[in-house]
Amino acid sequence: MRILVLGATGFLGRHAVGQLRALPGARVLDGGRAPGADLHLDLSTADPARLAAALREVAPDAVVNCAGAVDGSAVNLAAVNARGPAVLCEALREAAPAARLVHLGSAAEYGPTDGNRPVAETAPARPVGLYGATKLAGTLAVTASGLDAVVLRLFNLVGPGSPASSLPGRLAAELHRAGPDGSVRTGDLSAHRDYIDARDVAHAVTLAVTAPAPLPPLLNIAGGRARQVREIADGLVRAAGFRGRIEEDGGGSTRSAAVSWQQADITAAAHALRWAPRHTLADSLADLWAETRTRAESLR
């Protein structure tokens, strides 16, 4: 089985590639802008016809799209998150219409919820910012493509390798810089989020690639529990043995203010993929801290 992973060198791409390569008989090819990629491309600027030609040569049985942008200008977000999936779908229809497409979406597509019950895939999508809106456009391009495709709508990510653009990754790095007795300033930690380990996402990707039957167009991938963001700080403090001060200044992102509570209904993924999260939040944070410390020490 030939599996092409786009965005293979990113946070989620690295985890997905690692698990996909463990599949018996799988040949995993990486696609992206990194030097040495098996398929060198930038979906944000790719020409559909040229991409189709490249896909004919690769002849994938499955394509996993982990490419995405979480910040930047409106032009960049639209190019990567909206145009990219649309171009990919057009090229796949031309060059590899039988290939399964697994595309990674975002819980930001849902926007505000009522705070009373988990959000299911049938809930209306009402993103509150450019990121969520562009991710939703990408999801719609995939679900309307007519391909054998599924969008895994991911909730808040955590685990080893969490980037500095995420709260867990940023806070782990700041705790390391502060030392055991320093102080770290954070924004508002009162919102509730549903966290999922990147390794559990990679497991869901692997199951989605290999599932024999047609899949639902959209599946939530999450921990299935709303947790106060403060639990992330508390868990990293415990993992780090931090004795200093966490100063919560009350600031925060516009999205956090607009979406104060999110929890996913993960029933559909359990039925369609026989998937469930395997990592506890404590394990995810302990592994994130260990990876942060090891990486920092290797740079000395």
Automatic annotation (TrEMBL):
Taxonomic placement: Bacteria, Bacillati, Actinomycetota, Actinomycetes, Kitasatosporales
SUPFAM superfamilies documented for this protein: NAD(P)-binding Rossmann-fold domains
Name recorded for this polypeptide: Nucleoside-diphosphate-sugar epimerase
UniProt cross-references to InterPro entries, sorted A to Z: Epimerase_deHydtase (IPR001509), NAD(P)-bd_dom_sf (IPR036291)
Sections of the chain in a coiled coil: none
Residues of the NAD-dependent epimerase/dehydratase domain: 3-220
Family of this protein: Belongs to the NAD(P)-dependent epimerase/dehydratase family.
Pfam families attached to this UniProt entry: Epimerase
